[in-house]
Design a protein that fits this description.
The structure is a single chain. The protein starts with a helix and ends in a 9-residue tail after the last strand. By secondary structure, the chain is of the alpha+beta class. It is built from two helices and five strands. About 20% of the residues are buried. The structure holds guanosine-5'-monophosphate and zinc ion. Guanosine-5'-monophosphate (5GP) binds next to β2.
């Protein structure tokens, strides 16, 4: 989608620190990290938010949850210490980039509830 920063990063039209890529997903370091490890897992396909999921996204999201997140957590060695997975959605959810992304945060003890 034009003027979408995460589409541009996925298409290599904008820079980012990639830590993972396959046919359907990229994972990059967040520009403004909120934890020692702060990764954004982003479908290459433009999906605005959870509100825009269709049945055709089920395999993609299962792939992210079952394959990609555990692999990255393992690679970053935060699988045993623990981590948090967050999808901010919409205005009250604090979503600022309208291309679905999953935050993976770890490397320190995270407080709950978030603000
Ligand atoms: P949201 O607030 O939408 O859940 O999260 C958007 C995240 O994307 C923020 O944590 C922000 O720091 C990050 N971000 C925004 N623009 C860029 C960018 O151009 N590159 C990278 N790597 N992260 C970005
Ligand atoms: Zn996009």
């Amino acid at each position: 989608m034009a003027d979408c920063i995460f589409c541009k990063i996925a298409n290599k039209e904008a820079d980012a620190k990639f830590i993972f890529e396959d046919e359907t997903v990229i994972a990059i370091r967040d520009l403004s990290p909120k934890a020692p490890e702060h990764i954004l897992i982003i479908p290459k396909k433009h999906i605005g938010s959870i509100n825009d999921f269709t049945d055709s996204d089920k395999d993609l999201m299962a792939h992210i949850m079952v394959d990609v997140i555990p692999k990255i957590a393992n690679d970053l060695k935060i699988d045993k210490s623990g981590f948090r997975v967050v999808i901010n959605t919409g205005e009250d959810g604090g979503q600022t980039v309208n291309h679905l992304h999953i935050h993976l945060l770890g490397g320190r003890s995270l407080t709950w509830p978030p603000g």
